[in-house]
Description:
The complex is a heterodimer of chains A (239) and B (102). Chain A has 239 residues and is mostly helical. Chain A is 67% helix and 0% strand. Chain A has 3 domains: 1-83, Four Helix Bundle (Hemerythrin (Met), subunit A); 117-169, no CATH class; 177-238, no CATH class. Chain A is built from 10 helices and no strands. Chain A is extended and about 85 Å long. Chain B is an all-alpha fold and 102 residues long. Chain B has a single domain (6-88), classed as Helix Hairpins, CATH 1.10.287. Chain B contains 3 helices and no strands. Chain B has helices at 6-26, 30-55, 59-88. In chain B, helix 1 (6-26) packs antiparallel against helix 2 and helix 2 (30-55) runs antiparallel to helix 3. At the A-B interface, helix 1, helix 2, helix 3, helix 4 and helix 6 of A face helix 1, helix 2 and helix 3 of B.
Amino acid sequence: MPWDVIFFYTIAAICLFTGLLVVVSESPVHSAIFLVLCFVNVAGIFVMQGAEFLAVLQIIVYSGAVLVLLLFVLMLIDPDKLPSFYTARPLQRYVSLLIGLVLLLEVGAAIITRPAIEAIGPDTPEAIAAVGGNVQAIGRIIFTDYALALEMTSLVLTVGVVGAVVLGLPERLGEKARESRSTISLGHPRGSSDILGPGPRFETPIDVPAGRTTAPQGPRKVVMAKSPDDYTRAGEISR
Amino acid sequence: MSEITVNHFLFLSAALFIIGMMGVLTRRNVLVIFMCVEMMVAAASITLVAFAQETHTINGQAFVLFALAVAAAEAAVGLAIIIALARRGTAPDINQMQELRD
């Protein structure tokens, strides 16, 4: 048996085994570490396929960046809140196992019976070696044929970063909105002046009919409105 | 058995993809579901590179490059969503994240 066959089966076995352990291991930290192993083996598969650049990228981007990000997020989350292992119904486990095996059989049959594709492309291993290697060949194609797609990728990454920052912001704006919503009688100038900060201040208090509102009590000037109509009417008065 | 063909890589990729899919379908932890999605992306990448190798074109490898970039952006946004949910007090449990549905 030649060496590349031995290497392929070893790498594939480790890859599938660690992939399985990602799914079945109880702790998410263990899952993440097995996923690193799985991705390193996927990089090994890429090397066997002659895609050295993608192999390096796989290790740098996935094992290096994404998994570290994932572990950070894992550490930020309260471990008591993590859900238990499986879904509530154990039937789902067996059904999913069955469905997975059936799917694998189907795909396997499709792979075995597929017609062989003729080698149509110009990028034979000799051509790639003539260009200077895998990295040079990929660089040539992404900066000529796929230049627009490359620009779009940079746009996607930018939008992704902006979206992550926006989602990661503390909800300060939302809290402020909730606070102002919870105060009583926003339309009333006395009620709104100490919340909205600098703004139009009203020198004279408005004459509110007795019975509709109560006098403010305590340090904060709060005007109580008894019915929802009072909000709008107070707003009309202030305007 | 004595030679590695493209079909070997396709089988490996299918098996890895289905393992990841079963993880997405059975696990409840959102982070583990996320890892399984990444695994499925890696399996699809193996298929693309295998066909690129078979047809002697390098376009498949360029596709994998773009898929990798999109997956990285997706990882950043997805993890930010998980952090935002954790800050709101929602557990990272797929059965409890149903506010959009309700």
